[in-house]
Design goal:
This protein is an alpha+beta fold and 296 residues long. Helices cover 20% and strands 27% of the residues. It comes from Struthidea cinerea.
């Protein structure tokens, strides 16, 4: 499976999409590069929530490996998201190119780092990693598949669905042109943290707030007016992650001046008056001659 990310992660194809090597290589050849920001934490959460689910082709009995390819330093908390994956038995390999942050790669990757962290100066040099990375990946899968001890596979990982680990009933209220209030019912087992991610549905930089697990509400402020926002509330545990709550709502448009009146007309002047727009600090008044034939 493959996902690309910038400020908004995008699944290119799921684990179940192709069944032959040739099909995968053809899909890679047709892949279009997605430019933009570097929100690695959001991308890793996307992989966990979207790409490693059974309905996306993830098999419970299979080993779970994630290869992160990045050319920059993350603009959000990649370490917290990576730790969540690793706590669930998912192994992360980090491959950096050009401006990737070596320290961040080492934070995100699984142990042992000498097998899971790679860094090259430019994209053409990635070819030099293919042989070694292929051998390491195949060896790791074989090693872990032969282990029958508890904790070596996803079997012993707590389920990440149901009322035990997942909050319910997301309510969005008190919506204004620049703020909204979120509230939800906590799961039966309170999480260690909540990650609240919100961003405009038509594209924009995601923002993230991390709350303590005892909290169950949040006021979002400094939003853009008249904009639809996607909101996710994700519970994070020491060894599991619950299903996230999602909601969509639009901020209100900015208030407009009303009741425009014209008075004190003369041959070269007129007076305008209106009811004030709440929160306005200035007004821009535009005036032009009416087109020929229109009412004066």
């Amino acid at each position: 499976g493959l996902s690309q990310y910038s400020s908004d992660p995008r699944t290119e194809w799921d684990l179940s999409a192709y069944s032959t090597r040739e099909q995968v290589l053809e899909a890679v050849r047709n892949l279009r590069y997605k430019g933009g920001n570097t929100f690695t934490g959001l991308a890793l959460t996307h992989v966990l929530e979207q790409n490693l689910k059974p309905d996306a082709g993830a098999r419970l009995e299979a080993e779970k490996l994630v290869i992160l390819l990045t050319d920059g330093k993350s603009q959000d908390d990649a370490n917290l998201a990576a730790q969540t994956l690793k706590n669930l038995g998912i192994e992360i390999f980090a491959v950096g190119v050009k401006n990737a942050d070596e320290a961040e790669l080492r934070q995100v990757a699984s142990e042992p780092l000498e097998l899971t962290v790679y860094n090259v100066l430019d994209f053409p040099l990635l070819g030099s990693l293919v042989g070694k990375l292929t051998r390491v990946l195949c060896t790791r899968i074989k090693e872990r598949s032969h282990k029958e001890t508890a904790g070596s596979a996803v079997k012993d990982t707590p389920a990440n669905t149901g009322p035990q680990l997942s909050p319910t009933d997301l309510k969005i209220s008190a919506v204004t042109s620049k703020s909204m209030h979120l509230a939800w019912s906590p799961p039966l087992r309170p999480p260690k943290k909540y990650r609240v991610v919100y961003y405009p549905s038509k594209g924009g930089t995601p923002k993230e707030v991390v709350l303590e697990g005892a909290e169950s509400s949040l006021q979002l402020s400094n939003l853009t007016s008249h904009t639809e926002y996607l909101v996710s509330v994700i519970p994070v545990y020491d060894t599991a992650v619950g299903d996230g709550l999602r909601g969509v709502t639009s901020t209100l448009p900015l208030s407009s001046p009303r009741s425009l009146r014209v008075s004190e007309l003369s041959h070269n002047s007129l007076r305008l008056s209106w009811k004030a727009a709440q929160g306005a600090t200035h007004y821009l008044v535009l005036c032009s001659a009416a087109p020929e034939g229109a009412e004066d």
